[in-house]
Amino acid sequence: MKLITLPSEFQKALPILKKIKEAGYQAYFVGGGVRDILLERPIHDVDIATSSYPEETKTIFPRTVDIGIEHGTVLVLENGEEYEITTFRTEDIYVDYRRPSQVSFVRSLEEDLKRRDFTVNALALDEEGQIIDKFNGLEDLKNKKLRAVGRAKERFEEDALRIMRGFRFAASLNFEIEEATFAAMCSHAPLLEKISIERSFIEFDKLLSSPFWRNGLEKLIEAKAYNYLPGLLNKKQELRALISQLKSDFQFHSSEQAWANLILDLKITNVKHFLKVWKTSKDFQKKVLSIVDLYHIRLKRSYSRLDIYQFGKEVADLTELLRQAKALETDFTAIEKLDKELVIHDKHEIVVNGSYLIKELHLQPGPKLGLLLKKIEAAIVEGSLLNQMEAIKAFTIKELENE
């Protein structure tokens, strides 16, 4: 198969391939980028594989960075762009079901492609637009099938993360998983416990963020892979509820919204602990927790001005979109109205601070002052106090007199 035209991202990288070939080596575009050209999907990565060894690659280009040279990867800086150039390689016996004990550089494209995970990711493309397909990946693309390269059992024993990648690709591509490949994913699912949680999080997060996340999640449930992921042991019914309780065409608007919904359906009580076990960042935890907390508040009552101030319009919108997906009553107009009514959106916008009150009213620093500042903040947000120096001073004096 030959492509008539290449996407601009690949055309821009053509001089890289030509330089490598002029130096006497082979060079091809490989991986997901080639697959996505054929599926007419957005291009995220332009990966290049070559028969030149890393040190040979470095002699071809004047500006390079050794980003993963022990694995054969050199970063080439050319024409204001960065390209990862990786030497054809084979891999020895894998340790801990994730890392090869040794990487060997080879001159053969086929040897390189046969170590890849799925046939649709084992395609190569030359500078003339010719597709090199050694494992019937084109046929699998046509039939929307996800099939392991070679023996599925071996691929998943080499790298157990490929099991999660399989579920993720089912979610992003809306492909069916070929029978023998899926059987191997099911039987090797316990190996997911050997994989770093950070890597499993990335794949699960991408799955939930994909347009066909239901397809990927259904396969994950069917394979019972959830039993080997943090906090999901024996959570089959709850995960099924995650699918059934949302409108059939709903797609998550952010990772944080997806994980908040997961937590709500799993009925997780210690949200922070759950997210820590998944090794997520503090910023991620904070936003997920905000959506979960605001969702619970919204179950009891309508939004207040203080809610929108404390949680922010973005979190409120994500919460309301989740309610909409669950066929609950929504009020996006109220969010918009309350946000516009806010005099301040952050406590730093208040015209006085603790230092001012200490100086003007001879107050002592400490918890009592902190509580007073919170009262001032809430009163300004609720509209009962003007954000003006004299008004705040009078409010503070009155509060002190009422103690």
Count of beta strands: 13
The tally of helices reads: 20
- Structural class estimated from helices and strands: alpha+beta
In this structure, how is the largest beta sheet organized? 7 strands, mixed
Round the mean pLDDT to the nearest integer and report it. 94
Task: Specify the overall morphology.
Answer: elongated
Terminal Cα span: 83 Å
The portion of residues assigned to helices is 40-55%
Placed side by side, the strands forming the largest sheet appear as 3-4-5-2-1-10-11
Oligomer: single chain
Strand content: 5-15%
Which spans have pLDDT < 50 for at least 5 consecutive residues? none
Radius of gyration: 28 Å
Account of the protein in words:
This protein has about 400 residues and is an alpha+beta fold. Helices cover about 50% and strands about 10% of the residues. It has 20 helices and 13 strands. It has helices spanning about 10-20, 30-40, 55-60, 110-115, 135-140, 150-160, 160-175, 180-185, 195-210, 215-220, 235-245, 255-265, 270-275, 280-300, 305-310, 315-325, 330-340, 355-360, 365-380, 390-400; strands at about 25-30, 45-50, 65-70, 75-80, 80-85, 90, 95, 100, 105, 125, 130-135, 145, 175. The longest helix is centred in the last third of the chain and has 19 residues, at about 280-300. The protein is elongated, with a radius of gyration of 28 Å. The mean pLDDT is about 95.
